[in-house]
Write a structure and sequence with these properties.
By secondary structure, the chain is of the alpha/beta class. 22% of the residues lie in helices and 24% in strands. The protein contains ten helices and 17 strands.
């Protein structure tokens, strides 16, 4: 039990790659030492993110000495402890959220430009990381748990009127697509936006790009999700089939920005780049576990004057801006709620592709609502 509290930090932990098969174990663990800019949250909701699964399965690399691993970085909870120098105006009883980052140096050029996600020292993940500003070397634990502790700088107040369960997956999934949408001018310079893949990230891409005023095209392998895309706000739907080059004939230079949420390693990049107008951007947010992207023709880049890039998670300020937009425009997350006690059913179901489009774990014992 953590010193100075009357509650225990307990969560669902993986002890190896087989944990994703429904083998998470409920354990007690010691969080970082409480610092004066920290908060403790009583967790109400936590989204299940594909990153959680890629971490637990070691799809992104071996964890070695980082087991056991309590993942989850789409956390919403009630503030139950504050330090003397808590940030963001947070006070006891507030409902706040934590995304995929829980620490940075807060001193470098990028941290001072509201770009903590690109900290020169390196961002600390909400799980599978180690703190270095306070409690140096202490392991970070995520939200498949009953409590969370960490720096208040990365705890974002949830706007009044926004369903906290719907807010949870926005804190990573939503922010991950919102960040490049805003950076590359969706709804402004980029009037026509393409979203590749209609999944956990892609469905946020559609709703958020639409809320920003863009005309959205969903690019998908089949017509299976076309109705969903239209309900989410997409105006157009492109079916790739097995031959993107053939499928995209007649649609060349129709988009200003493409956000790729797919993690497929064998995309026909030349065909996708043909969809962009000169000056257009193809931005990756999905990460193939192979760590590779299919070949890109230099001629396609040069003659098309198009650009390929990537985008990480959202910064704290970007998350605040996104949540304000969601509250203002009444953007709805498509979620399915699971009792956290059924996590060993929820994770395999997520892997099987059953989510439409985000799973959210509900901590009923802490007051979360199924």
């Amino acid at each position: 039990m953590s010193a100075s509290t009357d509650y225990k930090f307990q969560g669902w932990a993986g002890y190896g790659p087989e944990s994703v098969e429904g083998n998470l174990k409920f354990i007690e663990y010691e969080p970082k030492q409480f610092a004066e800019d920290d908060v403790d949250l009583k967790i109400l909701y936590c989204g299940i993110c594909a990153s959680d699964i890629s971490t637990l399965s070691e799809g992104w690399g071996e964890l070695k000495d980082m087991w056991p691993q309590v993942v989850g970085h789409e956390i919403v909870g009630e503030v139950v402890r504050v330090g003397s120098s808590t940030k963001n105006g947070i006070k006891m009883g507030d409902i706040v959220g934590v995304g995929a980052q829980c620490d940075s140096c807060l001193k470098c050029h990028y941290c001072n430009k509201d770009m903590e996600n690109y900290c020169s020292t390196g961002m600390v993940g909400t799980y599978n990381g180690k703190f270095y500003r306070s409690s140096e070397g202490s392991k970070s634990y995520g939200g498949y748990a009953n409590y969370w502790r960490g720096p208040s700088h990365f705890a974002i107040p949830i706007p009044a009127g926004l369903d906290p369960a719907e807010a949870a997956p926005l804190l990573c999934g939503g922010g991950t697509v919102y960040s490049p949408l805003v950076q590359f001018g969706a709804g402004k310079e980029a009037k026509n936006v393409g979203i590749i893949g209609l999944g956990g990230l892609g469905h946020f891409g559609v709703t958020l790009a639409t809320a920003l005023g863009a005309d959205v095209t969903v690019i998908s392998h089949s017509a299976r999700k076309q109705k969903d895309a239209e309900e989410l706000g997409a105006k157009h739907f492109l079916i790739t089939g097995d031959d993107e080059a053939k499928a995209f004939k007649g649609h060349e230079r129709s988009l200003d920005l493409i956000i790729c949420t797919s993690n497929a390693p064998d995309m026909n990049m030349t065909a996708y780049l043909s969809l962009l107008r000169p000056g257009g951007n193809f931005i990756l947010v999905g990460v193939p576990e192979t760590g590779k992207l299919s070949d890109i023709s230099p001629m396609a880049l040069i003659f098309g004057n198009v650009h390929v890039g990537g985008s990480l998670i959202a910064s704290p300020q970007t998350l605040k801006d996104m949540l304000a937009l969601v509250a203002e425009k009444k953007v709805k997350s498509w979620i399915q709620r699971w009792s956290m006690n059924k996590i060993n059913e929820a994770v395999p179901s997520m892997i099987a592709g059953n989510a439409r489009y985000r799973y959210v774990l509900v901590n009923e014992e802490n007051g979360g609502k199924l």
